[in-house]
Amino acid sequence: MDRPVNIFYMGKGGVGKSTSAALNSLFLSRIGFEVLLVSLDPAHNQSDIFEKKLSDKPKQIVPHLQGIEIDQEQWIKRYLKDVQQQIRRTYAYLTSFNLEKYFKVIKHSPGLEEYALILAFKEISRKFSKADVLVFDMAPTALSLKFFNLPSLSLVWTNHLLALRKEIIKKRELITKIKLMKKEIETDKVLSSIQKSIREYTDLKQIFENPYLTKINLVMNPDLLSLAESRRIVDGLNAINISLSQVIVNKMQKNSSIDHIVREFDGVDLLTVPFSEAPLVGIDSLQRFISANEKIFIKQPLEILNKAG
Prior knowledge:
An eight-stranded mixed sheet has the order 3-4-2-5-1-8-9-10. 50% of the residues lie in helices and 18% in strands. It is globular and about 75 Å long. It is of the alpha/beta class. It has twelve helices and ten strands.
């Protein structure tokens, strides 16, 4: 199945990450791609950049480009509701116990934000599977790295749970056996739930690690402070086998030097975007900037450009 290309924009606060995501989304839509721009950043700058009120419902910005802002709190609530329903289904035989007090504890579990964002990502990928490109304006660095790390971390945990559950089934003989076409099929609700989670996290991990489906565009400025955080981002991604697609050096001026950046990211595609004297706010202003710098924006990975075919 042909899947959309996912382009994730990451970077230190203030470097122009959201503006870079907006500009590239607008450019891709201009050359004929069907694009969805998704803000996963709780600050939600895209409404201000386009001067259009975006929400958790997709809104047309220009032809071929829609925008959506993820309501993180709503997705946390949805994630918690899914967990509660799953527990009730799996442990229906415990209805005599008061499970509500345990649900209250779940609300304070660590990692809810990244689980909520993963849930949102899965839903968006499903609903907009016919889009050519999904552009994600990412959350701050710490949360973004947790987001990308979640599938790998969850697989470690769920594989241990799988082994434990199989041992429990083996020792306590908790398997319900069903006769189907003269063949015995072993079923266990908890085991099935764990196996489903493993399949889902494996699929996510493969998407994030696939350089043809996932593009990480690291946005930075030509200063040492920006470089320091960019190093942390790259180290975090390398640790989970996710590669960098492009480094975008934003707000370049005539006297800006990027020799230190070139040395640091040797072998990675590097784009330099000039500083804009005019505020990059509003569609007309963004379009003028794209027109003046089209040679920069056309430097997309070939598999994205070929997708328009």
